[in-house]
Amino acid sequence: MQRLQHSTLADNLRNDSVEFIWGKGTVYADPPEKLSESTGDTGYQMWAQLKPYMASAQQEVIILSPYFVPGKSGVAFLRQLTDRGVRVRILTNSLASTDVGIVHAGYSRYRKDLLRAGVELYELNQVTSKEDRRAYSSGKVGRARSSLHAKSFVVDRKTVFIGSLNLDARSVVQNTEIGVIMDTPAIAREMAQNFDQRIDEVAFRLSLDNDEYGYGSLRWQGRVDGETETFDADPNTSFWRRFGVGFMRLLPIESQI
Predict the structure, then answer these.
(1) Is pLDDT of 233 > 50?
(2) Is 157 left (phi over 0), alpha (psi -120 to 50) or beta?
C-alpha cells in the first residue's frame, strides 16, 4: 500500500495532472463459443483479426509478450516482415524472470531461428539495479526483481495493441482473450520511444556467435549494476534450472503452452 500511495500514478491522480490522449480505439475479443469449437477454427480466434495490423507494417514492429512461443508459422511470418525491411524487436521474459518454465521451454526452441530471421530479440533482466533493491528493502517504491506482464505491440509508431493476448498457442488457440487497437500515433510514439530509451537497461539482447563450422551459440548482453556484461548461458539461472527446461523442450506439448 505504501508503494502504491507513493507511485507516480498516485501522485498524478492526487495533483489532477494525469495526461489524457484522445483517439480512436477498436475492441477485439474472442467469443465464449471459442471454448466449445474446434481449435483449428480461426473464425473464433481474435489473432486472425489482429494479424493484419502487424502484417501491414512498413517500417517497424515492437512486440511485448511475457509468454512467447511463435511456432514455425510465427517465425515464418516474422521473417516475411524482416525480408521486407521491417525492423522487428521483441521483448519477452528470460528464464530467470518467467514464472512458467515450461512456456520458456517452448519459446527457447525458436530463439536461434528468430535471430537468423533478422528479429532483434530481448529477454527481461530479472536482476534490478542496486538503487531499486535498496528502495524495495526499505519499503519505498522499488523492485526486488522484475517480471514482464504487459502484452502489447506497436506498428510503425502509429498503431498500438494492448490486451490480454500472449503470442503463444494457448492464448491464440485455446484461451478467450480481449484487447484494444488504438490508432493513436501520440501513444504509439511514446511507447516506442520508451522502448528505445530503456530496453538496454532492462533487458538482455540475444545474439548468435558462429564458430568456424557455422554452429551458432547464443549470447546474452546486458547491463549488470551499470556495467555491460556478456553471458554464454541464460543469465541469473542455475545449471539445474537450465537442465529442467532443456528436458521439457523434448516433450511434444507445444500446443498446450
Answers:
(1) yes
(2) left
- Provide mean pLDDT across the span 79-100: 94
Instruction: Kindly report, residue by residue over 9-33, the tens digit of the pLDDT.
Output: 899 999 999 888 999 999 999 998 8
Angstrom distances, CA of residue 81 to CA of 51, 126, 205: 12, 29, 20
pTM, rounded to two decimals: 0.85
In eight-state DSSP terms, residue 229 is E
How many angstroms from the chain centroid is the CA of residue 36?
29
| H or E segment and range at residue 41 | none
| b/e code 43-78 from CB counts within 10 Å (16+ = b) | ebbbbeebeebbeebeebbbbbbbbbbbbeebbebb
CA distances from residue 160 to 54, 98, 112, 155, 184 in whole angstroms, order as listed: 10, 24, 27, 6, 7
The pLDDT of 72-101, averaged and rounded, is: 94
Amino acid in position 201: E
- What 3-state class would DSSP assign to 205? strand
Over range 42-48, report the average pLDDT. 86
- Answer for the pair 151, 66: CB distance below 8 angstroms, yes or no: yes
Torsion of CA 186, 200, 216, 238, to 10 degrees: -120
Domain boundaries, the chain: 23-256
Task: Tell me the CATH class for 23-256.
Answer: alpha beta
- DSSP states of 130-141: HHHHHHHHTTSS
Which residues does residue 26 pair with via DSSP β-bridges, in sequence order?
181
Taking 90 as the threshold, does the pLDDT of residue 132 lie above it?
A: no
Looking from the CA of 77 toward its CB, the CA atoms found within 13 Å total: 15
| Largest CA-CA distance found in the chain, in angstroms, rounded | 62
